[in-house]
Amino acid sequence: MEQKQEKKGFFRGMMDQLTGADWENARETPSEETDAIQSSETAEETGTVPPPEPAAETGTVQTPEPTTIIPPVAMTTAATVEKPSFFERLKSGLKKTKDGLVGRIDALVLGKKEIDADTLEELEEILITSDIGVKTTVELIRTLEQRLGRNELKDGEALRAALKEEILSRLTAHHQPLDISSRKLFVLLVIGVNGVGKTTTIGKLASRFTADGKKVLLAAADTFRAAAAEQLVAWGERSGVDVIRHKEGADPSAVVFDACKAAVARGVDILIIDTAGRLHTKVNLMEEMKKIRRVIGREIVDAPHETLLVVDAATGQNAISQARLFKEAAGVTGLALTKLDGTAKGGIVVAVSHEFALPVRYIGVGESIDDLRDFNPQEFTDALFQA
Ligand SMILES: Nc1nc2c(ncn2[C@@H]2O[C@H](COP(=O)(O)OP(=O)(O)O)[C@@H](O)[C@H]2O)c(=O)[nH]1
Ligand SMILES: [Mg+2]
Predict the structure, then answer these.
(1) Do domains 87-174 and 178-385 have the same CATH topology?
(2) I want to staple 222 with a disulfide (CB 3.0 to 4.6 A). Which of 67, 122, 276, 363 is the partner?
(3) CA 387 to CA 385: how far, in whole Å?
């Protein structure tokens, strides 16, 4: 139902096709982890991977704003066409999640003069089917039951407010924005399965850090296909950032080694490393990650300083499996959730952060350069719960 309404990219549709059949039953079981990874590899082998980005294919730089969104509200000046604020975009991006979660909650609690165990049971079902995750939902309901026992939930309004408060406090508990100024040379390793938005996120970050006056260097350690490096180079060109790259099929660790040397020699503030999200087997992928980490650690003290796992919010419970797998095997320290625009599965932000006690560093609400932001729990819950 929800899935049909979503605007599906090729990859997302493919993920759904490949994993969707037993998606409901497979949720949060270890075997699903294997599926999540294998699905991208199956695609790889069968040649059904999405075609490279147009920019990557032609080697030309895409214009940063391929589509200009005209704000629905009055413009500040007649001459300028401004994009809606990030909060507005976040709000409209989360609309489907909001309809599925808060809309149903409102229908449940609206005008309710009394809250009882049945109400909480119904709420539990809404939360679980909104990708908040079983573990987090059970915990939320337990807390709400305690509050009900203390007579804190007098009516529907109070329940709605309490739920928002409990969600916010869980997001806030793990919240920690990424501070790259803590190191002279900060090394950011970006990992995640194919198609989740790693390269795009790196492109957006390169632009943001450059705008902040930081000297940025990128490393194209996704050597799986040439187009991956081309895509990164195209992003680098947009913000005047250099990319260290080797030929297609080269050893990713060799790219990383060169990039670390170059970063030190050039005195950059931040080195961002792009990696491949697919290899022939899951074991290979994780071994590759370990090897890359060893190389970085040998070249730069305590590096990588952040291992950012990128997950596609629209894949719902698959994001959970990926977080579990990568956290154990690849030392993930932070999360970026992409494609929050237009998905009904935005509740996954709460689930993935809370279940793995990982900070959400960034969220992406679109494909253009300014569609990535620092995650802000208050802003996120406001966007979700505000009328
Ligand atoms: N709608 C939307 N699309 C995104 C977002 N982030 C990335 N994408 C798209 O997802 C696709 C895959 O991204 P890419 O960066 O190549 O993924 P990678 O394989 O992990 O490096 C591209 O078409 C991106 O434009 C986002 O926040 N919203
Ligand atoms: Mg990529």
Answers:
(1) no
(2) 276
(3) 6
Question: Domain boundaries in the chain?
Answer: 87-174, 178-385
Give every CB contact of residue 217 below 8 A, 6+ residues apart in sequence. Answer: 241, 242, 243, 244, 259, 262, 263, 266, 268, 270, 271, 272
Q: Give domain 178-385's CATH number out of 3.40.50.300, 3.30.160.20, 2.40.440.10, 3.30.360.10.
A: 3.40.50.300
User: Is residue 51 within 8 Å of 57, Cβ to Cβ?
Assistant: yes
Could you identify the atom of ligand 1 that is nearest to the CA of residue 274?
Answer: 21
Distance CA 5, CA 108 (A): 23
Atom of ligand 1 nearest to the CA of 231: 16
- In angstroms, what is the span from residue 277 Cα to ligand 2's centroid? 8
CB 196 within 8 A of CB 338: yes
d(CA 136, CA 87): 25
Q: How far away, in angstroms, is 52 Cα from ligand 2 center?
A: 10
Q: What is the pLDDT along the chain (387 residues), one digit of tens a residue?
A: 334 444 444 334 433 443 333 333 333 333 333 333 433 333 333 333 333 333 333 333 333 333 333 333 333 344 456 778 889 989 988 999 999 899 999 999 988 899 999 999 999 999 998 899 899 999 999 999 999 999 999 999 999 999 999 999 999 999 999 999 999 999 999 999 999 999 999 999 999 999 999 999 999 999 988 899 999 999 999 999 999 999 999 999 999 999 999 999 999 999 999 999 876 566 788 888 999 999 999 999 999 999 999 999 999 889 999 999 898 888 899 999 999 998 999 999 999 999 999 999 999 999 988 899 999 999 999 999 987
> What are the pocket residues of ligand 1 if the criterion is a CB atom closer than 6 Å to any ligand atom?
192, 194-200, 277, 338-339, 341, 364-367, 371
Residue identifier of the C-alpha nearest atom 22 of ligand 1? 197
Are 331 and 306 within 8 A, CB to CB? no
Give the distance (Å) from ligand 1 centre to CA of residue 65.
15
CATH class name, domain 87-174: mainly alpha
The residue to which tokens 């796992």 are assigned: 309
